[in-house]
Amino acid sequence: xxxxxxxxxxxxxxxxxxxxxxxxxxxxxxxxxxxxxxxxxxxxxxxxxxxxxxxxxxxxxxxxxxxxxxxxxxxxxxxxxxxxxxxxxxxxxxxxxxxxxxxxxxxxxxxxxxxxxxxxxxxxxxxxxxxxxxxxxxxxxxxxxxxxxxxxxxxxxxxxxxxxxxxxxxxxxxxxxxxxxxxxxxxxxxxxxxxxxxxxxxxxxxxxxxxxxxxxxxxxxxxxxxxxxxxxxxxxxxxxxxxxxxxxxxxxxxx
Length: 255
Known about the structure:
Layout: H1 4-14, E1 36-39, H2 41-44, H3 48-57, H4 62-83, H5 89-103, H6 110-118, H7 129-138, E2 142-147, H8 151-161, E3 169-172, H9 183-193, E4 200-204, H10 207-216, E5 220-223, E6 239-241, H11 244-250
Parallel strand pairs: 1-2, 1-4, 2-3, 4-5, 5-6
Helix pairs in contact: 3-4, 4-5, 7-11
Protein backbone atom coordinates (compact mmCIF):
# COMPACT_ATOMS: atom_id res chain seq x y z
CA UNK A 1 0.00 0.00 0.00
CA UNK A 2 1.05 3.61 -0.50
CA UNK A 3 2.28 5.02 2.78
CA UNK A 4 -0.32 7.75 3.24
CA UNK A 5 1.61 9.98 5.62
CA UNK A 6 4.74 9.92 3.47
CA UNK A 7 2.80 10.40 0.26
CA UNK A 8 0.88 13.38 1.64
CA UNK A 9 4.13 14.97 2.77
CA UNK A 10 5.44 14.64 -0.78
CA UNK A 11 2.19 15.71 -2.38
CA UNK A 12 2.07 18.79 -0.19
CA UNK A 13 5.24 20.00 -1.85
CA UNK A 14 4.34 19.03 -5.39
CA UNK A 15 0.62 19.48 -6.04
CA UNK A 16 1.03 23.21 -6.57
CA UNK A 17 3.47 22.39 -9.35
CA UNK A 18 0.94 19.99 -10.93
CA UNK A 19 2.49 16.56 -10.42
CA UNK A 20 2.04 14.51 -13.51
CA UNK A 21 0.89 11.23 -12.02
CA UNK A 22 -2.74 10.86 -11.03
CA UNK A 23 -3.15 8.84 -7.89
CA UNK A 24 -5.84 7.58 -5.55
CA UNK A 25 -4.90 9.86 -2.64
CA UNK A 26 -4.25 13.18 -4.34
CA UNK A 27 -4.94 14.30 -7.89
CA UNK A 28 -3.63 17.27 -9.81
CA UNK A 29 -6.29 19.51 -11.34
CA UNK A 30 -4.46 19.55 -14.67
CA UNK A 31 -2.16 16.65 -15.52
CA UNK A 32 -0.91 15.43 -18.91
CA UNK A 33 -1.50 11.74 -19.42
CA UNK A 34 1.45 9.49 -18.74
CA UNK A 35 1.64 7.56 -22.00
CA UNK A 36 4.66 5.42 -21.17
CA UNK A 37 6.59 4.04 -18.22
CA UNK A 38 10.31 3.27 -18.04
CA UNK A 39 11.35 0.79 -15.35
CA UNK A 40 14.61 0.19 -13.61
CA UNK A 41 15.42 -3.52 -13.85
CA UNK A 42 15.22 -4.20 -10.13
CA UNK A 43 11.78 -2.67 -9.80
CA UNK A 44 10.87 -5.74 -11.89
CA UNK A 45 13.43 -8.43 -11.00
CA UNK A 46 13.84 -9.73 -7.47
CA UNK A 47 17.42 -9.62 -6.17
CA UNK A 48 16.67 -11.49 -2.94
CA UNK A 49 17.86 -14.88 -4.32
CA UNK A 50 21.30 -13.34 -4.93
CA UNK A 51 21.43 -12.23 -1.30
CA UNK A 52 20.31 -15.67 -0.14
CA UNK A 53 23.02 -17.30 -2.22
CA UNK A 54 25.66 -15.04 -0.65
CA UNK A 55 24.61 -16.26 2.81
CA UNK A 56 24.53 -19.87 1.59
CA UNK A 57 28.09 -19.66 0.25
CA UNK A 58 29.42 -17.58 3.16
CA UNK A 59 27.39 -18.63 6.22
CA UNK A 60 27.27 -15.95 8.88
CA UNK A 61 28.81 -13.36 6.57
CA UNK A 62 26.00 -12.94 4.05
CA UNK A 63 24.62 -9.59 5.16
CA UNK A 64 28.05 -8.02 5.60
CA UNK A 65 29.33 -9.26 2.25
CA UNK A 66 26.13 -8.28 0.49
CA UNK A 67 26.29 -4.73 1.81
CA UNK A 68 29.96 -4.32 0.92
CA UNK A 69 29.35 -5.78 -2.54
CA UNK A 70 26.36 -3.54 -3.35
CA UNK A 71 28.10 -0.36 -2.20
CA UNK A 72 31.24 -1.03 -4.21
CA UNK A 73 29.21 -2.20 -7.22
CA UNK A 74 27.73 1.25 -7.75
CA UNK A 75 30.85 3.09 -6.67
CA UNK A 76 32.83 1.29 -9.38
CA UNK A 77 30.22 2.14 -12.01
CA UNK A 78 30.15 5.81 -11.12
CA UNK A 79 33.92 6.12 -10.66
CA UNK A 80 34.62 4.50 -14.01
CA UNK A 81 32.04 6.65 -15.78
CA UNK A 82 33.42 9.83 -14.22
CA UNK A 83 36.98 8.89 -15.09
CA UNK A 84 36.16 7.93 -18.67
CA UNK A 85 37.22 4.33 -17.94
CA UNK A 86 33.92 2.65 -18.69
CA UNK A 87 33.30 -1.00 -17.86
CA UNK A 88 29.84 -2.54 -18.07
CA UNK A 89 27.51 -3.64 -15.27
CA UNK A 90 28.74 -7.24 -15.38
CA UNK A 91 32.41 -6.30 -15.09
CA UNK A 92 31.88 -3.72 -12.36
CA UNK A 93 29.66 -6.11 -10.41
CA UNK A 94 32.26 -8.89 -10.57
CA UNK A 95 35.09 -6.54 -9.63
CA UNK A 96 33.04 -5.23 -6.70
CA UNK A 97 32.41 -8.78 -5.49
CA UNK A 98 36.13 -9.54 -5.54
CA UNK A 99 36.94 -6.36 -3.64
CA UNK A 100 34.24 -6.94 -1.02
CA UNK A 101 35.42 -10.50 -0.38
CA UNK A 102 39.02 -9.31 -0.02
CA UNK A 103 37.93 -6.49 2.27
CA UNK A 104 36.24 -9.01 4.58
CA UNK A 105 39.05 -11.60 4.24
CA UNK A 106 36.68 -14.17 2.74
CA UNK A 107 37.86 -16.90 0.37
CA UNK A 108 36.10 -16.18 -2.91
CA UNK A 109 36.99 -19.27 -4.91
CA UNK A 110 36.56 -19.22 -8.70
CA UNK A 111 33.59 -21.55 -8.25
CA UNK A 112 31.85 -19.27 -5.75
CA UNK A 113 32.60 -16.22 -7.86
CA UNK A 114 31.09 -17.82 -10.97
CA UNK A 115 28.07 -19.09 -9.01
CA UNK A 116 27.29 -15.65 -7.60
CA UNK A 117 27.70 -13.89 -10.93
CA UNK A 118 25.55 -16.46 -12.75
CA UNK A 119 22.77 -15.71 -10.25
CA UNK A 120 22.26 -12.44 -12.16
CA UNK A 121 21.22 -14.53 -15.16
CA UNK A 122 18.67 -16.46 -13.06
CA UNK A 123 16.64 -13.52 -11.77
CA UNK A 124 12.84 -13.68 -11.90
CA UNK A 125 10.14 -11.07 -11.42
CA UNK A 126 8.68 -9.99 -8.09
CA UNK A 127 5.27 -11.63 -7.51
CA UNK A 128 3.29 -8.43 -8.12
CA UNK A 129 4.88 -7.67 -11.49
CA UNK A 130 2.95 -9.68 -14.06
CA UNK A 131 -0.60 -8.62 -13.12
CA UNK A 132 0.48 -5.00 -12.71
CA UNK A 133 2.18 -4.90 -16.10
CA UNK A 134 -0.82 -6.54 -17.74
CA UNK A 135 -3.11 -3.88 -16.25
CA UNK A 136 -0.84 -1.12 -17.50
CA UNK A 137 -0.63 -2.60 -20.98
CA UNK A 138 -4.39 -3.04 -21.16
CA UNK A 139 -4.74 0.64 -20.31
CA UNK A 140 -2.60 1.49 -23.34
CA UNK A 141 0.51 2.51 -21.43
CA UNK A 142 3.75 1.74 -23.26
CA UNK A 143 6.42 -0.03 -21.21
CA UNK A 144 10.20 -0.20 -21.36
CA UNK A 145 13.22 -1.11 -19.30
CA UNK A 146 15.80 1.61 -18.69
CA UNK A 147 18.60 -0.06 -16.79
CA UNK A 148 22.29 0.00 -15.96
CA UNK A 149 22.26 -3.79 -16.32
CA UNK A 150 23.54 -5.38 -19.50
CA UNK A 151 21.18 -6.52 -22.23
CA UNK A 152 22.17 -10.12 -21.41
CA UNK A 153 20.94 -9.76 -17.82
CA UNK A 154 17.73 -8.03 -18.90
CA UNK A 155 16.93 -10.56 -21.61
CA UNK A 156 17.60 -13.46 -19.24
CA UNK A 157 15.28 -11.97 -16.62
CA UNK A 158 12.53 -11.48 -19.20
CA UNK A 159 12.82 -15.13 -20.31
CA UNK A 160 12.97 -16.46 -16.76
CA UNK A 161 9.87 -14.46 -15.83
CA UNK A 162 7.94 -15.23 -19.03
CA UNK A 163 7.54 -11.53 -19.76
CA UNK A 164 8.27 -11.76 -23.48
CA UNK A 165 6.29 -9.22 -25.48
CA UNK A 166 5.39 -7.06 -22.48
CA UNK A 167 8.10 -4.43 -22.95
CA UNK A 168 8.22 -2.35 -26.09
CA UNK A 169 11.86 -1.44 -25.47
CA UNK A 170 14.66 -3.09 -23.48
CA UNK A 171 17.11 -0.24 -22.98
CA UNK A 172 20.49 -0.94 -21.43
CA UNK A 173 22.63 2.16 -20.95
CA UNK A 174 25.62 -0.04 -21.77
CA UNK A 175 25.29 1.08 -25.39
CA UNK A 176 25.84 4.66 -24.18
CA UNK A 177 28.91 3.66 -22.14
CA UNK A 178 27.66 5.45 -19.06
CA UNK A 179 25.40 4.77 -16.07
CA UNK A 180 22.41 6.35 -14.44
CA UNK A 181 22.13 8.97 -13.04
CA UNK A 182 23.92 10.59 -15.99
CA UNK A 183 21.38 12.61 -18.02
CA UNK A 184 22.34 10.75 -21.21
CA UNK A 185 21.11 7.55 -19.61
CA UNK A 186 17.66 8.96 -18.85
CA UNK A 187 17.47 10.58 -22.29
CA UNK A 188 17.40 7.08 -23.80
CA UNK A 189 13.72 6.62 -22.90
CA UNK A 190 12.74 9.87 -24.62
CA UNK A 191 14.63 8.81 -27.73
CA UNK A 192 13.06 5.34 -27.71
CA UNK A 193 9.46 6.36 -27.04
CA UNK A 194 9.52 9.56 -29.08
CA UNK A 195 7.66 11.34 -26.27
CA UNK A 196 8.52 14.40 -24.16
CA UNK A 197 9.62 13.76 -20.58
CA UNK A 198 6.33 14.87 -18.92
CA UNK A 199 4.55 11.99 -20.67
CA UNK A 200 7.05 9.31 -19.57
CA UNK A 201 6.86 8.09 -16.00
CA UNK A 202 10.00 6.64 -14.48
CA UNK A 203 9.78 3.75 -12.00
CA UNK A 204 12.83 3.48 -9.77
CA UNK A 205 13.99 0.74 -7.41
CA UNK A 206 16.77 2.75 -5.71
CA UNK A 207 16.29 6.08 -3.99
CA UNK A 208 19.28 7.61 -5.77
CA UNK A 209 17.76 6.56 -9.13
CA UNK A 210 14.45 8.19 -8.20
CA UNK A 211 16.38 11.39 -7.46
CA UNK A 212 18.25 11.14 -10.76
CA UNK A 213 15.03 10.74 -12.72
CA UNK A 214 13.51 13.76 -10.98
CA UNK A 215 16.62 15.83 -11.71
CA UNK A 216 16.23 14.87 -15.35
CA UNK A 217 12.57 15.88 -15.41
CA UNK A 218 10.57 12.66 -15.36
CA UNK A 219 7.47 12.23 -13.22
CA UNK A 220 8.87 9.60 -10.88
CA UNK A 221 7.45 6.75 -8.83
CA UNK A 222 9.74 5.05 -6.33
CA UNK A 223 8.98 1.38 -5.71
CA UNK A 224 10.52 1.34 -2.26
CA UNK A 225 10.43 -2.42 -1.79
CA UNK A 226 13.08 -2.32 0.95
CA UNK A 227 11.33 0.42 2.98
CA UNK A 228 14.33 2.75 2.92
CA UNK A 229 14.40 6.47 3.77
CA UNK A 230 14.31 9.08 1.03
CA UNK A 231 17.78 10.04 -0.17
CA UNK A 232 19.04 13.47 0.93
CA UNK A 233 19.67 14.70 -2.60
CA UNK A 234 17.24 17.57 -2.86
CA UNK A 235 14.85 15.74 -5.20
CA UNK A 236 11.70 13.94 -4.07
CA UNK A 237 9.84 11.35 -6.15
CA UNK A 238 6.26 12.23 -7.04
CA UNK A 239 5.09 9.25 -5.00
CA UNK A 240 6.38 6.25 -3.10
CA UNK A 241 4.82 2.80 -2.99
CA UNK A 242 5.82 -0.63 -1.82
CA UNK A 243 5.03 -2.54 -5.03
CA UNK A 244 3.68 -2.20 -8.54
CA UNK A 245 0.07 -2.46 -7.35
CA UNK A 246 0.62 0.99 -5.86
CA UNK A 247 1.99 2.20 -9.19
CA UNK A 248 -1.11 0.93 -11.03
CA UNK A 249 -3.39 2.83 -8.66
CA UNK A 250 -1.24 5.91 -8.74
CA UNK A 251 -1.31 6.32 -12.52
CA UNK A 252 -5.09 5.96 -12.38
CA UNK A 253 -5.40 2.55 -14.05
CA UNK A 254 -8.52 0.80 -12.86
CA UNK A 255 -9.49 3.67 -10.58
